[in-house]
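Page 47, continued from p. 46.
Same chain as before, 47 aa.
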Amino acid sequence: MCLTVTKLNGNDFTADVMFETIERSGLKRAKAGDIVNLEKSLTLTTF
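Result:
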């Protein structure tokens, strides 16, 4: 899944998440302040 960061504030951020992403992932149970694993997106030149 990809998230779009809409606001950066130090070590915190706000992201837009589509309804379909929320419904099909564990984000449905997440609350503000929860710790989540983040990884950079793959690109065509990653491998």
